[in-house]
Amino acid sequence: MSIESLDELLEFHWMMDMLQTVDVGIVVFDREFKIKVWNGFMESHSGLLPSDVRLKSLFSLYPGIKKDWFAQKCRPVFELKTRTFITWEQRPYLFKFPNYRPITGTEPFMYQNITLSPLVSANGKVDNISMMIYDMTDVAGSKKQLESLQVLRSEEEERINNG
């Protein structure tokens, strides 16, 4: 093996390690929504090993995801090679993972932002999508607390003005 080949292999190894340890969920799936990549974040929060999910349909593993709705979200990614987004304000979660901070967390489940990105092959086609899942629980909890305080303040002001 040449030095260049060894260097490329070592680089590939640390890139794979980074993919597994990043604090973002990464799932790669094909046009049939069969899972090809399931990183450590997903394994940790779902309890499912990559070998448990590989080449299985996303919808068979997570029947709560509405196939028609999700396919519609993925259509521009496959056809137009553009990213699409799902925010926790639109839909609190795609994967109903429990909140992994049961003592300090105020929410029962993980709020998520999702980015769907095209993975363009060498022939220029998009046959796979990379889905990144971001934990937005702290942001969602803070926003909900702020909104609750604003309602209390408005009610208090109204009580004082009408009192």
Automatic annotation (TrEMBL):
Q: At the top level of its lineage, which domain of life is listed?
A: Bacteria
- The identity of this protein, by name, is PAS domain-containing protein
- This chain's source organism reads Alteromonas sediminis
User: What does UniProt list as this organism's lineage?
Assistant: Bacteria, Pseudomonadati, Pseudomonadota, Gammaproteobacteria, Alteromonadales
